[in-house]
Amino acid sequence: MNALKTLLLAFSLLVASQAKAGFITINESALDGIFSQSSFDNNPIDIRIGTATELVFPDLLNITTKQQVTKLFNQHIGPFDFVNFYFIDFISACGNANNNNFVGCGEFPGNDFVVESSFAAGANGSELLAHELGHNLGLDHRSGGLMDPNINNSTLLSSTEVSTIRNSRLVQTDGQNFWININPVAIVAAATTQVPEPSTLLLLLLSISFFVRKNRLKN
Ligand SMILES: [Zn+2]
Question: Where are the domains of the chain?
């Protein structure tokens, strides 16, 4: 086998391994920015990302039924008032809705949501995470802004929406500061023995998936 073939084989093995594991991407400062925008009137809600957990559930990497969504959310890590961000490979079911363009699904209200890892790692990842968190906090869909059901490059929240968020039991306070605790969870097919280093290949894959998945639904 020549060197190029060996390289290509390693390449495809890496592709295969990457496709069977959710991976966590959270831009905490970008989320903090969304939850401190002007409609928060200088009373920001701090997004606090806790320790990441890896759960082995090969049957939950590709979610195509609402039963799988229910099973996933039943794995909740931590206390009730900690939100779980689950990262998987693919999702096409949410509640009673099915759509191949879904990239996320969140309880409304609740303390769990799930997103496709590849989309969360792309340019609109923070918009997606904040949108699903918005559902957990009691926000329904509306046209325009963060809660628009489509990825629309907007993270705007209205004063009314901020009032709803402040009434959520997920918002913690010590009387002076406000915050929301998050536990990120990666769903994998098998326990990770080593974390692959970010490579040009991975970056290439991510840009391809983002390109293909533009205009997808947040749900
Ligand atoms: Zn939604």
Answer: 21-212
Distance 198 CA to ligand 1 centre (A): 30
CA of 130 to the centre of ligand 1 (A): 10
Question: In this predicted structure, what is the pLDDT of residue 203?
Answer: 46
Measured in angstroms, how far is the CA atom of residue 78 from the centroid of ligand 1? 24
Model confidence band, residue 63 (pLDDT cutoffs 50, 70, 90): very high
| C-alpha 110 to ligand 1 mean position (Å) | 13
pLDDT for residue 9:
56
Q: Which CATH number does the domain 21-212 belong to among 2.60.40, 3.40.50, 3.40.390, 3.30.750?
A: 3.40.390
Cα of 91 vs centre of ligand 1, distance in Å, is 14
- For residue 135, the CA-to-ligand 1 centroid distance in Å is 7
Q: What is the pTM of this model?
A: 0.81
Higher-confidence residue of 46 and 13: namely: 46
Q: What is the DSSP string of the chain?
A: --HHHHHHHHHHHHHHHHTTB------HHHHHHHTTSGGGTT--EEEEE---EEEE-GGGSEE-SHHHHHHHHTT--S-TTEEEEEEESEE-EETTEE-TTB-EEE-SSSSEEEEEHHHHTSTTHHHHHHHHHHHHTTPPP-SSSTT-SB--S-----HHHHHHHHTSTT-EESSS-EEEEEEEEEEESS--SSPPPP-HHHHHHHHHHHHHTTT-B--
